[in-house]
């Protein structure tokens, strides 16, 4: 109660705040900024020494003067030394424990020396969250081996992120006894099958695993029992095998994998996210590979029991379904309509309709006109599609509350789908239609339709 | 996308616990404006919730003398989004766009006072973003810090920390 009655001057922002709160603010700053706060006033001189987070970003701490033949700045041995010494200097002045630390270091033969500080951070500062990144100038990855890390070095961490490294099997010793590790993110890495799968086996307590733009392996096997969130972005693999009974969230973005070899045995997924963007620069795919990216429809077909070959339907318990899918393509819609039939708990549905291929891929060989590329023949008129299935969605409509249609272009099939939901989904509270300014009129027609849910609000953007 | 996923996780846990609707809570701002909110919103504000708990829920009108009627709606809006599991990068970007420097600081104090962890953490990030790459003078003005160094002391510190000045932007003309 006494807490509620105290006065302060709004103008005097800082002086009333305890150091603890100031630490929260400056812990969000990069290292040189944190350090620079010591010039603010006498109170601040020592404040930085008790922050809970350090972010040692070489590109911000040292400004290399030399450039290489391609005009990129390249660190010299002196630059690397300055970085390493500064890191050491700061770490040894810091008092108390740290919660997390980030290193971004130079790609230089001496650049890796800073990794020896990791041991200090883990053993003396007892950090629980660590992120290591090697500067990536020309997309060549540097190898880290067991030379930099002693065995079981990561065993006290709860979160680890590695970016831009090539890992060899010998690194597995560092991952021994890592059952406490809950979050692992590997980005732009090179690992062979035995390395990636070995790491996953060692870190069997993982709850969140993200594998982003990594190469070198052909087959991954994920069987970590505690895993709740799995993110697979921009990968090119031959086989993905996931057997986690309690997986809650699965997110997939632009991966290449034969549809039949994406094997997911998880019946309790609550949220499924699938994006597909072959033109995303970040995928770094060669032109001819782009057509092989798994489309949402492939996943919907192969991970449900639509084809009898797959015994498990991973969509049955979904609460949230967020997908890139072209509502105008009957084959894609067929897969969606089948999956929706089994989603009796679904609460939120978000569909992003990909921008017209003709605009984006003007250089591609696909010359079929987009409006009529039915790759499946139907025994009835296309516009009847949703109508013929309406009766199967009774269970779906019982729980569906939030719908977002992004990239709405006002084409017939999109409108029919939106109309079906407005007319039948009697529990729906919000429908969000996000469209280009050119077709606002078509979208506005949706507003005047009779609605089955009295609570429904339709928002156009 | 990762943010999206984790916010979905929030919505999952929310939808599983069906909040029972009971009497609304009245929050009274420093300038005596009453805001009625659902009990679930009050739960997000630890200071308010502990007050309710202490009185076994008998008192449902809570005076918040340190928070103005200008700031309170922002706090409530954030809490509403938070319990709906709808805190996304887009929402946060929109939310912060509406706020000038003074308002960010006021909201930060409000979040600190009400003990709303998520809002506090988000606003510290916002403040950090707004002082990033700014000169020492700018940050002093931003926080209202009085420089208590002698010019000699400051010059010496600046020399020692010369390496930290590589990324500083020149001060902008308009600062609010």
Could you describe the 3D structure shown?
Chain B: It holds the Pfam family Skp1. Chain B: Residues 117-163 form the SKP1 component dimerisation domain. Chain B: Residues 25-81 form the SKP1 component POZ domain. The complex is a heterodimer of chains A (461) and B (176). Chain A is 24% helix and 20% strand. Chain A contains 13 helices and 19 strands. The two termini of chain A are 45 Å apart. The model of chain A is unreliable at 1-11 and 358-374 (pLDDT under 50). By secondary structure, chain B is mostly helical. Chain B folds into two domains: 21-131, Potassium Channel Kv1.1, Chain A (2-Layer Sandwich), CATH 3.30.710; 136-165, no CATH class. Chain B contains nine helices and three strands, in the order αββααβαααααα. A three-stranded mixed beta sheet of chain B has the order 2-1-3. In chain B, strand 1 and strand 2 (34-37) form a beta hairpin. The longest helix of chain B is centred in the N-terminal third of the chain and has 15 residues, at 2-16. Chain B is elongated. The model of chain B is unreliable at 1-21 (pLDDT under 50). The chains are: A alpha/beta (461), B mainly alpha (176). At the A-B interface, helix 1, helix 2, strand 10, strand 12 and strand 14 of A face helix 1, helix 3, strand 3, helix 6 and helix 7 of B.
The name of the CATH architecture of the largest domain in chain B is: 2-Layer Sandwich
- CA radius of gyration of chain B is 20 Å
Shape call of chain B: elongated
Number of continuous helical runs of chain B = 9
How many structural domains are formed by the residues of chain B? 2
- Assign the CATH class of the largest domain in chain B: Alpha Beta
Hey, roughly how much beta strand do the residues of chain B contain?
5-15%
User: How many beta-strand runs of chain B?
Assistant: 3
Name the average pLDDT of chain B. Answer: 79
Percentage of residues assigned to helices of chain B: 55-70%
- Biggest β-sheet: strands ordered side by side in the sheet of chain B: 2-1-3
CATH topology of the largest domain in chain B: Potassium Channel Kv1.1, Chain A
> Which regions of chain B are unreliable across 5 or more consecutive residues at pLDDT < 50?
1-21
* Quaternary class: heterodimer
Taking the alpha carbons of the first and last residues of chain B, their distance comes to: 32 Å
Order of helices and strands of chain B: HEEHHEHHHHHH
**Rg of chain A, please?**
26 Å
Strand order of the largest sheet of chain A: 1-2-3-5-7-8-10-12-14-15-16-17-18-19
**Total count of helical runs of at least 4 residues of chain A:** 13
Protein name (chain A): F-box domain-containing protein
Pfam families (chain A): F-box, LRR_At5g56370
Domain F-box (chain A): 11-57
Organism (chain A): Pisum sativum
